[in-house]
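Bump. Still looking for Senescence-associated protein 5 structure tokens.
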Amino acid sequence: MAVSNNITACINFLVLLCTIPIAATGLWLASRHGGEDCARLARWPIAVLGALLLLVALAGFAGAYWNRRGLLACYLFAMAALITLLLALLVFAFAVAHDSGAYPAPGRAYQDYRLQGYSSWLRGYVADDPRRWEGVRACVAASGTCRKLAMDRSFIVPEQFYMSHLSPIESGCCKPPTVCGYAYANPTAWTGPAASPAADADCAAWSNDPGQLCYACASCKAGVLGGLREQWRRATVPLLVATVALIFVYVVGCSAFRNAQTEDLFRRYKWGNY
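Sorry for the wait, here they are.
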């Protein structure tokens, strides 16, 4: 095998390695089952895209190793298309997950959540579709997130709970918003204030019933979006690093492929003249 083909095979092997974190991230997103994972958004597309990248990279490695120029040409075209789709997905993820609905709660270590802080697309996807929200709400209730919080024995006095760092789901769905002025009894049981809580529409929606809690609150929808946003921000870090490395190695691979073609043409010309 020619030197350029050897280099092309090595580069395609590096491309193959770059696709593994992308496929692994997609599988990680698809396999999660916590309360934060109830709003399933672009999980399987990432897993499928990672798998396709992996298969195309394998085809490119095989084409370079056995010097199959037709297979290499198809590989370069398919890889360019898949990288473009991956970049579009990353841009979309950064755009919809940029804004946050979290805001500081006075005298608390945790944050409260409002829908208004999130992108309009994200709000429309989860909060503005009643049928989808009913499914997400049932999933959050069945996940046991609030039940586990209620069973946490580390909160002996209210101050310990106030200084805890709750997840978006725990803060938005398992307790009333801080502005309502409810008094702490335990993580999922709160006593009402002396006056009617009119500061927030969620105040009247709160219930100490373990099956109700604040699942009907806008803050719960915001908490779900907060959990989805955090999950996406964690997932985009390895995706971005792998994508940058993939593009760099792919560009070098294209150059090596052209060099291999030039070397092959020169060899044919030389043999034809001697």
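The chain is about 65% helix and 5% strand.

Edit: fixed formatting.
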